[in-house]
């Protein structure tokens, strides 16, 4: 048995493990899933807010498109990825086409083996059946309640009673606030360094390069809540000044460095050329000195720490 376990673990892909955490609404939190995924070895966790019955999952679609060969997509449970067998198998097929793999922590799934693929289809069918049974039981309960002259749901909310609506709103705000405060240490220092000199798009891009998944809209909403609760300076919400082309390039260079601090000036220049980014003077070829100028500006803006900026220049010179 031990030999078999060792054989199967030796065959496990050695690529990245990328977590995917989904909840149904913005008021729900992904923290519990994130903790479990990071404990399982996921350095990056992608968050998604969307109904389980819907296939519209922008974050999941982007993850599947960009996942690398040998990488593994990890979820806590199958129903966090999909609620129907067809959608589940569609995602697995897309991963397989990219030589990527799938793992569910709570289910015996390993798509590197035929047995694992069979288990995947069986468990997917069971998950779909369970959801269908829950739906049938819910409908039966509503029908029975109606036959007795009762209406489903919270009477206070159904009747739009102010006190009931106020309780629901307060609970939603409390859940949202708890989620914001629990994660603020991961992203708020970056916001404080960059606002209001940089746009929310720029800040979201830098945070995403560091593995913190935010959209500009959600980020602004979170900061607005912190300001309203007197937990952040109102100046963070001031309108950003018009951006010069070099400001965007500076933020881009800072983001490239944040994703890989070991890159030299020449390597960063090569990445900008592959992205077809024009130099401040409109050229197509980047020189290390141009990168150094942008890094110096990023350092003065607080996007890159002094010690880190010096290490980049030192590595390039060496």
Automatic annotation (TrEMBL):
The record, for SUPFAM superfamilies, names: Resolvase-like
- Keywords carried by this UniProt record: DNA integration, DNA recombination, DNA-binding
Give the residues annotated as active site: 24 (o-(5'-phospho-dna)-serine intermediate)
Short name of one Pfam family: Resolvase
- Identify the stretch(es) annotated as Disordered: 1-25
- Whether Cell wall biogenesis/degradation counts among this entry's keywords is no
Gene3D superfamilies per UniProt: Resolvase, N-terminal catalytic domain
Q: Which residues form the Resolvase/invertase-type recombinase catalytic domain?
A: 16-149
- From the Swiss-Prot or TrEMBL record, give the protein name: Recombinase family protein
Question: What is the protein's species of origin?
Answer: Aquibium pacificus
